[in-house]
Amino acid sequence: MTSQPSLAKxxxxxxxxxxxxxxxNGDGLKAGLKNRHLSMIAIGGVIGAGLFVGSSSGIAxxxxxxxxxxxxxxxxxxxxxRMLGEMAAARPTSGSFSTYADQALGRWAGFxxxxxxxxxxxxxxxVEATAGAVILxxxxxxxxxxxxALIVMVVLTATNLVSVGxxxxxxxxxxxxxxxxxxxxxxxxxxxxxxxxxxSDNPGAGFAHLTxxxxxxxxxxxxxxxxxxxxxxxxxxxxxxxxxxxxxxxxQRAVTKATNSVIWRIGVFYLGSIFVVIxxxxxxxxxxVEDGSYVAALNSIGIPHAGQVMNVIVxxxxxxxxxxxxxxxxxxxxxxxxxxxxxKSFARTNARxxxxxxxxxxxxxxxxxxxxxxxxxxxxxxxxxxxxxAVALFVWLMIAFTxxxxxxxxxxxxxxxxxxxxxLFPYLTWVTIAMISFVLVYMLTDETGRKQVLLSLLAAAFVxxxxxxxxxxxxxxxxxxxxxxxxxNDSVDA
Length: 494
Known about the structure:
Elements: H1 35-44, H2 49-62, H3 66-90, H4 96-104, H5 107-139, H6 145-162, H7 164-193, H8 222-231, H9 240-244, H10 251-280, H11 286-291, H12 293-301, H13 306-338, H14 356-375, H15 380-387, H16 391-413, H17 427-443, H18 447-473, H19 477-485
Helix pairs in contact: 1-7, 1-10, 2-8, 3-8, 3-10, 3-16, 3-17, 4-5, 4-16, 5-6, 5-13, 5-14, 5-16, 5-18, 6-7, 6-13, 6-14, 7-10, 7-13, 10-12, 12-13, 13-14, 14-15, 15-18, 16-17
């Protein structure tokens, strides 16, 4: 392996100097995201479609104790975001944790986690495009599902190609709708829970439903861990703000604000909304599984057309996830290109500061994955889905190991930029590593989880092996040159 680049040095290609025009961040990307964009990306990033459509199965598996499952995963995400926030506030970059892993652990780490993360999001593009197509086809059946999936992908690709500001604007409104919807649901639901909502069809039982159907843990304490496996992946996306910060006007402020607010965001949107569902209805009410947890809760209150209301909200969440997924995949591909770990074309930006080739490369794979979903859903696409299934946990684990090394590098070279600090370092970092490792091991006891872990490990092993062999065959001459010359970097000075 080559020597590690220092924090202050470049990880970009020295032969491609960045555009130094006003509003450019020094690597060709434009600082086109406003503070309101970053704020809403941070808030909405933790609200995925999985929260709306996946919570019912978690409630059925664990009963009211699903709250503990959400709290455990939420605590893990808060700790991971604190670690990532520490590094991102000191060095905002479009490659985020992949760049930090490269610097702290070695090129193999940055290469591997960067490509695995890209793979995760391009598969998500296919999943979300299909989910959105199902809803739209239900409204306008004259257009086939594949047609809607194509339309959605084309529209959001065009949005990302225009400018980073257009991505930010779309995401601002998508996330805004999700935030207002969840906030309204929590407020209205709590009023109904305590019987003070005018016109509610639900008599309001207070906290009674938490224990009146077999107790708080009707399926035993072990069901909490089962619940963890079912809800953990709905939290993926909270880290997107650290990638987007590299294209903002004040990245350090954006990252610091997002990191400090993650606790209340998870508390309100996840714990708050699930608490409302299981206090409005007994956890074993059949409507929770049949109609979905949020629709069942709204129906119990007497909200008219609850199903269609939730379809609109879920569609918004799907479009938001698609929009952010394409943005995230393209920026990771861009960063890999800057470090010589992806095709050089991915590292180029057009006159608007958009990495056009990285976007098109990502969306092409997304289109192929959509086609696989319709053509070979139970074979090829099932393999893609499962081989990316545990990547979220791999990313969080890599962030934790990276932060253990990165803290010392920051303190040695740029101590003044350590404005966000991981609590009780290094003890909580090791606790987080233990928590994530436990979840991965426990997944092996679950049939679905076992398949995801084993296939994801297979994908990870392939990428790591490719990285190691590639580096031995072709030494990193361009990175060594960048370190020696000190030219540019992939970040925005805070």
